[in-house]
Specification:
three-stranded antiparallel beta sheet, rod-shaped, alpha+beta, about 45% helix
Length: about 130
């Protein structure tokens, strides 16, 4: 009795199953990598926006700081909105808040916080602390 050479249907089905499982794993890894890339991009934009606010505060005269950047007021006063300072918010639900430990202190301790939401709905926040003196 001669045996035919080649693959059987069962062997093809097993190979297809293994290939499908491997492909699903690769696609899952690709999606995770894309999510991390987007998160990194958003963090970079947030740090740049926070840096812009802090640089603007550095250029503001000391006596005008608490007026131009009100304490614990998210997004600033209506005449000096932080979105205008940083060139417009580009992140989802982006908000910048400036807070002072004690407005009577010299040096004045300044806490700047930026919050935003990822496209998946996860909340992120970055804080920076600095101080200004007369």
């Amino acid at each position: 009795m001669k045996r035919r050479k080649g693959t059987t249907l069962v062997e093809l089905m097993i190979a297809t199953l293994i290939f499908t499982i491997a492909l699903a794993g690769l696609l899952n890894a690709l999606l995770a990598a894309l999510t991390l890339i987007q998160s990194s991009k958003d963090t970079t934009v947030a740090i740049a926006d926070l840096g812009n606010i802090l640089e603007r505060m550095r250029a503001t005269p000391f006596n005008s700081l608490t007026t131009d950047f009100p304490d614990a007021d998210a997004d600033g006063a209506s005449d000096t909105e932080y979105a205008d300072i940083v060139g417009g918010y580009t992140l989802e639900e982006e908000h910048i808040t400036i807070a002072y430990v004690n407005v009577a202190d010299d040096p004045l301790e300044i806490n700047a916080q930026i919050t935003w939401e990822s496209k998946q709905g996860r909340q992120f926040s970055i804080e920076a602390t600095t101080s200004r003196t007369r």
